[in-house]
UniProtKB/TrEMBL annotation:
Membrane topology: Multi-pass membrane protein
Primary site of residence: membrane
Cleaved signal peptide residues: 1-20
Organism field: Latimeria chalumnae (Coelacanth)
GO molecular function annotation: G protein-coupled receptor activity
TM annotation in the entry: 605-630, 642-663, 675-699, 719-738, 764-787, 799-819, 825-847
Name of the protein this chain belongs to: G-protein coupled receptors family 3 profile domain-containing protein
Lineage of the species this protein comes from: Eukaryota, Metazoa, Chordata, Craniata, Vertebrata
Family the entry assigns: Belongs to the G-protein coupled receptor 3 family.
Top-level taxonomic group: Eukaryota
Length: 901
């Protein structure tokens, strides 16, 4: 209780003191902070709206040694464009004051402060506004003044933030017309901050979209090192997300530094990235622009963030060449009816309290006022100006950025911001007592309200602007994100001109949000073709990208796809394998069906083999005819005529059986091929074997009392032939029934081809057939070899030996050749072996006989056969040299025996 009373007493004393002592006017020197006098542009009214504008550029502070009172903060040159913003506010307030419907009977006044892009000045101005006094003291406001409703400003985010922190303490509504930094959306940190410029997340996304739209995948990023520059982080993320790569990403300090400028210029020069996104405020980037044009860095596309898309440098001729072609994002422009006329009426006589107007006048008309300079800036070149300003100079003759009433983005925002405050005040003004929004349904007093009471109304404001735009704030205090895309052209008058080339509306449905009129764009150097900015040129179809490990994905080599693989699009990351029955074409961008291969009748090799086969078969037929015709001549009769016919027939068949090997393999032909070949050849060799055995038996039967005599005759030979063939036949039947050969498509063994071939199904069976044939051949070879020196001018042993030699050789050569070839050549080798071995048989066994039959008919006699035999015998026969008589007789017997009858 005691402490409560103590507190109450203390409060009373303080309260009384505040009521009675005019604190500011009589403040003792010791109570006062030695703040500098702050001056703004003031117009009185019932309610005051504060405004903070960066009317001047900043200027680097001279370093203070603190040996005397530090100099006041310097501002740079007055900027026409920003001065126009200020007049947007003045214009709106005048308009509202004349408006009978909006806030009738209430006059709005204003207090405007120039922040010069400087945080110090922005805070100072805020305190000035809040205090309402020339000597700003925090946390105090004189009651006698009209209430401060809200503060508009500032432009740059980095100055708006300290303002927002201060105003947040007192809950003064703050509406910024240009500060777009993402961080300002945070309602916890900045509870009383609003803006009518969209937040930068949208702008950043838009910049990334723009970059990707033009196919720039190798991008440089520059940003100022302030809250505003943080937006570049989102640009970066979005570009990377969309598959682009960052060539470099640098931040530069808001304060000019020669070293950093040089570093960044070198970086830009060295980099192969042609597209550079610059996320910065205008004054920060100016030194870089100067250096870029000085060093003539051309051929780059500058992508500008909204803060410098419309830039002061547009009027500077020297930047023209280098920066033309710049493309950037800008806020939607609006229309302020009557503003253009208003601008041409800004005379010093009409605005006597405007502390900037004299400086503006001096700059615009290049003259000097008599009574001294404007207080804010000390222009150094006053001495050079000879003309005196009269205040009557003609504004209509001027044409600078101040008078550009047709491109109003921020000015329009300022204008709407004033209206927003006015509407909020109006809502407060029209509050129904008993239905108010505050505790106990009370309303606020329009002439004496608390800042937080207005904050309530600002938050909930919703009205339609004079040009039909709806105005309200979302839950973060932001408006809808809608942008224009602007491009810097060189006009016919050789000046820079800003042309709208597209729009970006995040409230539009996807796909319609980014609209760009490409034909309207003029790139650096006056080109119409989109400049390229890539790390590696894209890979053509048929190639794939090979990224170097540890390097950005946009830097890669193009490697051709391997055989059988394709890539059908540019910049493929992977090659695709063609399906089994397809193959890559030469360019490797398409899969084409594989060529089908088999030995056909049409192709030269097939046709040639066919011709050989036919002619060989015909020759065999002719030989057969000759034999039939001369069947009664001794040479035919000798040594088993029947066998000779059979052999000839078999040889003919074996020639013909090579025909089954030509042509597309089918189930039947596959089954027929090897077995027909096997059986026919077994027949051939059996015949030969039978012949040889017959020779041997016949010869041995000539010996007196030989028991072999009864074996001589066709019976035995028939048996041999039958048995020899039958075994092969059985082998084949087993093969065909157990696992018959079948046709198959072989896609693997040869690149780019489908080989249609017969799969033997059982290789064992195949080699069995061949092996059996081999055994037969070798047996007959051996037998024939042993019998080769028998008295034989009419027996076949010698020829048979020879033919078997040919036969065996052919097939021995065949095996490696067969195994080492593929596809149709394999078949051709087999056919060739068939033809060669059959031809060997035909030629060795039958041609000598035909020769005698046709050309030496005189030798075709029994006598000659025996006689010739005698001579031969004398010469060569060692075995049977016991006596001529015996010999002659033996020959005679042999001859008769070997005759069929
Ligand atoms: N959007 C900028 C920021 O948040 C401010 C800005 C935009 C600006 N355009 C401007 C500031 C022109 C000065 C001049 O920082």
């Amino acid at each position: 209780l005691y402490s409560y009373w103590m507190k109450m007493i203390l409060y009373r004393i303080v309260f009384q003191l505040m009521q009675t002592v005019p604190l500011f006017d009589t403040a003792q020197p010791g109570c006062r902070l030695p703040a500098l006098k702050t001056k703004g542009y003031i117009r009185d009214g019932d309610i005051i709206i504060g405004g903070i504008f960066p009317v001047h550029f900043s200027e680097a502070l001279p370093e203070s040694s603190f040996t005397k009172l530090p100099e006041s903060i310097h501002c740079g040159e007055l900027q026409y464009r920003y001065y126009r913003w200020l007049h947007g506010m003045v214009f709106a307030i005048e308009e509202i004051n004349q408006n009978r419907k909006l806030l009738p009977n209430i006059t709005l006044g204003f207090r405007i402060y120039d922040s010069c892009f400087l945080v110090q000045r922005a805070t100072e101005g805020t305190i000035w506004l809040v205090t309402g006094h020339e000597e700003p003291i925090p946390n105090y406001r004189c009651q006698k003044q009209s209430p401060l409703a809200a503060i508009l400003g500032d432009g740059p985010s980095h100055t708006s933030i300290p303002i927002a922190r201060l105003l947040g303490i007192y809950s003064y509504p703050q509406i910024s017309y240009a500060s777009s930094a993402v961080s300002l959306s945070d309602k916890n940190e900045f509870p009383s901050f609003f803006r009518n410029i969209p937040s930068d997340d949208f702008q950043a996304m838009g910049l990334a979209r723009l970059v990707m739209y033009f196919g720039w995948t190798w991008v440089g990023l520059l940003a100022e090192d302030t809250d505003y520059g943080q937006g570049i982080q989102i640009v970066k993320e979005e570009i990377v997300k969309a598959g682009g790569c960052i060539a470099f990403s640098e931040k530069f300090p808001a304060v000019f530094s020669k070293k950093v400028v040089n570093y960044i210029i070198q970086l830009i020069k060295r980099s192969s990235a042609n597209a550079i996104v610059v996320f910065t405020n205008e004054p920060t980037f100016l030194p870089y622009m100067g250096e870029i044009s000085k060093q003539n860095i051309s051929g780059k596309v500058w992508i500008s963030s909204e803060a410098w898309t419309i830039s002061f440098v547009l009027s500077q001729k020297e930047y023209l060449e280098i920066l033309s072609g710049t493309i950037g994002i800008m806020n939607r422009k609006g229309v302020i009816p009557g503003f253009q006329e208003y601008l041409y009426s800004v005379y010093p006589s009409k605005f006597p309290t405007d502390i900037f107007i004299k400086e503006f006048w001096e700059k615009a008309f290049d003259c000097k006022w008599l009574e001294g300079n404007s207080d804010l800036t000390a222009s150094n070149d006053t001495t050079t100006k000879s003309k005196l300003c009269t205040g009557e100079e003609k504004l209509n003759e001027l044409n600078n950025a101040f008078f550009d009433g047709s491109n109003l983005q921020y000015t329009y925002n300022v204008y709407t911001a004033v209206y927003t405050v006015a509407h909020a005040l109006h809502d407060m003004y029209t509050c129904n007592p008993g239905w108010g929004p505050f505790v106990n349904r009370t309303c606020a007093d329009i002439l004496d309200f608390e800042p937080w009471q207005l904050l309530y109304y600002v938050k909930n404001v919703h009205f339609t602007n004079s040009d039909g735009m709806e105005v309200f704030f979302d839950k973060n205090g932001n408006p809808l994100p809608v942008y224009d895309i602007l491009n810097w052209h060189i006009s016919s008058k050789n000046t820079l001109e800003i042309v709208k080339v597209g729009s970006l509306d995040f409230s539009a449905p996807k796909g319609q949000d980014l609209i760009i009129n490409e034909s309207a764009i003029m790139w650096n150097g006056g080109h119409t073709q989109i400049p390229r900015s890539v790390c590696s040129e894209s890979c053509l179809p048929g190639y794939r990208k090979a990224v170097h490990p540890g390097q950005p994905i946009c830097c890669f080599d193009c490697v051709p796809c391997s055989i059988g693989e394709i890539s059908n699009e540019t910049d493929a990351t992977e090659c695709l394998k063609c399906p089994d029955d397809h193959w890559s074409n030469e360019k490797q961008d398409k899969c084409i069906p594989k060529t089908i291969e088999f030995l056909s009748f049409e192709e030269p090799m097939g046709a040639a083999l066919l011709a050989i086969t036919i002619s060989c078969a015909s020759i065999t037929a002719i030989v057969l005819c000759i034999f039939v015709k001369y069947r009664d001549t001794p040479i035919v009769k000798a040594n088993n005529r029947e066998l000779s016919y059979l052999l000839l027939l078999a040889i003919m068949l074996s020639f013909l059986c090579s025909l089954i090997f030509i042509g597309e393999p089918r189930t039947e032909t596959c089954m027929l091929r090897q077995s027909a070949f096997g059986i026919i050849f077994a027949l051939c060799v059996s015949c030969v074997l039978a012949k040889t055995i017959m020779v041997v038996i016949a010869f041995n039967a000539t010996k007196p009392n030989s028991k072999l005599k009864k074996w001589v005759g066709p019976k035995l030979s028939r048996c041999i032939v039958l048995a020899g063939t039958l075994i092969q036949f059985i082998i084949c039947i087993v093969w065909l029934t157990s696992s018959p050969p079948f046709p198959e498509q072989n896609m693997k063994s040869q690149t780019g081809m489908i080989i249609i071939q017969c799969n033997e199904a059982s290789t064992i069976a195949f080699w069995f057939v061949l092996g059996y044939m081999g055994i037969l051949a070798i047996v007959s070879f051996i037998v024939a070899f042993l019998a080769r020196n028998l008295p034989d001018s009419f027996n076949d042993a010698k020829f048979i030996t020879f033919s078997m030699l040919v036969f065996v050789t052919v097939w021995l050569v065949f095996i490696p050749a067969y195994l080492s070839t593929r596809g149709k050549y394999m078949v051709a080798v087999e056919i060739f072996a068939i033809l060669a071995s059959s031809a060997g048989l035909l030629a060795c066994i039958f041609f000598p006989k035909c020769y005698i039959i046709l050309l030496r008919p005189e030798e075709n006699t029994k006598e000659h056969l025996i006689g010739k035999n005698k001579i031969d015998h004398r010469k060569k026969l060692l075995l049977l040299s016991s006596g001529e008589k015996h010999e002659e007789m033996m020959s005679e017997t042999f001859y008769t025996l070997s005759m069929e009858e």
